[in-house]
Amino acid sequence: MTNPTPTDDELKSAAQILRQTHPSLGISKLFAQLKTDHPEWVVSEKRFKKFVTPSTTTTSTSTDGNGSGADGDKGGDDGLIAKTGLDPSLDIGSIAPKIKVKMFNVQGKGKGLVAKEKLQVGELVWQEEPWIATNDSDLTPYLSSREMCSQCLTLFPQPNPPLSVPCKHCAESHFCNRRCYSKATEQGTHNDYLCPGQNRECKALLSFINQKKARDIQGVARIIALWRRYRDLGDEKRAGEVEKRVWGSMARISQRTKEGERREWPYIAESRLEEWRLTHLLILRALNPSNDEDPESYKSFHRFLSTKKKNIPPLSKEEEERWFSFDSFLELLGLIGLNQESSGGLYALHCHLNHCCEPNLQVRNLPKTWSPPTSLPADLPPPMTAASRGTNKLSIIVKKTIHPGDELTISYVDQRLSREERRVKLREQYGFWCGCNRCVREGKED
Ligand SMILES: [Zn+2]
Ligand SMILES: [Zn+2]
Ligand SMILES: [Zn+2]
């Protein structure tokens, strides 16, 4: 095993070679090249900078393209390190007794999961329902034609179920049974704040989400609604748990910082910021309208609140700032991007899993009728189509034997992509250059 942190000498000579071969490249691009040449190295752009001589061209062509918003806030690699921490409300021992959380002392890596004992191929390590359910826009037609449960995303048996349970207040949501209905109310999926039959002010937001296929906004709205409902009803314990999970545990980064890394950012900055501002306003109107700016919505929202509980205390300055500021909105959006599992939303334990291009776990959505045997075939068929799909409950299954102390990994990207494609995608969507064994090996083959 080579040490993943290069010595000053190693870094210096790599920097010199890079500078000789690319005399006019800016430091960020040179750094990207370094990460491609040495995927196994753990090194920050800041440290790399110390060893690089400036480019030979004096005028910069890539920045200042557009004044508004593109303020040159390109934090390099340091800027893309997500904030993350432990989640005290998660009882891992009861969900998955054979694994534990580990904080890695590697820059930018954060937490992960490791095995406490040997895990055999095909073994079911744990199953988990989403903490915040979100649905892919492909499923919207099924949901709006009342063919699918809004909470667990199971298709109702055909022909149309006489027994599905509709929301009592609106025509938007249907559920398998009372259990799914009460989960949806309890969690953010369809709680009072996001039920148009109860809170009229959420209508514009919900139709925006459907029209724009804005699943990430759906996630943000559901997180805030989940917190706000507990908070307003006076359930301090659960409001506190949501708060800790969101702002203290799940990996998070401002969407603006993340997109600021994109090469085309200077050209799209203005329109992206405008889009985010508009969406942010829709969220405010639905979940915290201001009396000064939007008195009509304010009145209507507070009428709705008064049906829930008498004398709900107004949000404190800190609460306003933490949950409803524009910066917080961008952080929540970034959190969704880093943690959302495409088949179901945000999962409290699954979101601890780190990426590897040859993972030792696979994640499946099995049908509701499936009951766990002790083991499953190592390679189940790929995720089902909507017509034969499972629920949003995840089953985490061992793909390759895992020994005690090994880290458990999944793949965030399609494993059939080439090394270059995978690495670019991971960098753009998750903010890191993959340095897994497969990337190192395939890098040497080239
Ligand atoms: Zn259901
Ligand atoms: Zn409803
Ligand atoms: Zn990799």
Automatic annotation (TrEMBL):
One of its GO terms (molecular function) is histone H4K20 methyltransferase activity. Coiled coil: none annotated. Residues 97-413 form the SET domain. Keywords: Metal-binding, Methyltransferase, S-adenosyl-L-methionine, Transferase, Zinc, Zinc-finger. GO terms for biological process: methylation; negative regulation of gene expression, epigenetic. The keyword Transferase applies. Residues 53-65 have a biased composition (Low complexity). It holds the Pfam family SET. CDD domains: SET_SMYD. It catalyses: L-lysyl-[histone] + S-adenosyl-L-methionine = N(6)-methyl-L-lysyl-[histone] + S-adenosyl-L-homocysteine + H(+). Residues 53-82 are annotated as: Disordered. PANTHER family: HISTONE-LYSINE N-TRIMETHYLTRANSFERASE SMYD5, SET AND MYND DOMAIN-CONTAINING PROTEIN 5. This is Histone-lysine N-methyltransferase SET5. It comes from Kwoniella bestiolae CBS 10118. The lineage of its organism: Eukaryota, Fungi, Dikarya, Basidiomycota, Agaricomycotina.
